[in-house]
Amino acid sequence: MKVLAYPGFSQREINPYTRLLYGSMAAEISDFSHRRALATRHDIFHLHWPEWELNSISNPIEAALRLRLKLLLIDLIRANGTKVIWTAHNLKAHDGLHPKLERWFWNAFTKRVDGYIALTESGRVAAKEHFPNLERVSGYVVNHGHYRDEYPHDSSEDAREELGLSRSARVALFFGQIREYKNVPTLIREFSKVEGEVVLCIAGKPNSEQLADQLKAASAADSRVCLHLQTIPTPKVGLFLRASDLVVLPYRDIFNSGSALLALSFSRPVLVPDRGAMSELRSKVGPDWVRTFDGEVDSMDLTQALEWACSGSRATEAPLGELAWPKLAEQTLRAYEDVIARSSRARLHNSPSTYAPRPALGTTQLKEK
Length: 369
Prior knowledge:
- Helix content is 40%, strand content 15%.
- The protein is α/β, with parallel strands linked by helices.
- The protein starts with a strand and ends with a strand.
- Mean pLDDT is 90; it is low at 353-357 and 359-365.
């Protein structure tokens, strides 16, 4: 099986998700490049985050041209017999810079996929409801993997000393890139109403100077709020997680969350909104590790969650065995094979697939509907 991955191994310092997935897969994986896409035939073209231009290019004309070129490239790849698979990490661009362009792009893009992968069953249902074009193709469920083996797990006491945090305080952490929809200024304002020896640590780079100024203003009157407003280098990621008692994701809108999986990989309980895939994550990992809130996060949510997180009644490690990357890579590979086999049958057996499908999959391994 030859797979062209967009992205593949190239984003290892930004997000290790695709590197961990493909590094565990028994297939020939190539990182996407225009040359590889046009000069070499692949069995599968697997896309993650195809909406990248909608978040990163502020000029609508430039964004539109880039997206049109992407769709043209997909057409050329499909004309060569390659099947296009999309992993639906998100159902919309985070920043909403180009609403009309975005509606056009998603409609055009989803017409071109031969199958899609969701990270949860609720995500699969939501993707099909959000994009009617997906009704004509197969959808598969392959969960988001954990990051347990990616970072050193040293003692929390050493981490607190390095960050200058009290060992006796209860520490809440927000970690990750900071965007408007993640609602971090509200988190800071509500935290300031929480009483006791508590600390809120914000670690991540805001996506605008205006947002950075909002965070500084919101925290100015509370010395218990520690701001680390920059990209956290990979060797330092574990430092912040180990120093925390609770990871808080105050998002107004959420579909999936790698940040929640990162926290659980360090066996840190998480407070998340009761939206998107979070209730499914709570069911999978357990209520000892995932706590949800309704609406916007408030001081009562934070007070109760900190007490819950520091109760000491949970196991030493979060139960993440079902989220091991080799297992998820195998499920993804089977999804590829199924898409190829279905395409072969759709051609009335005139061009039989060279890849024989493996035995039927149990629902604990892979869901296809």
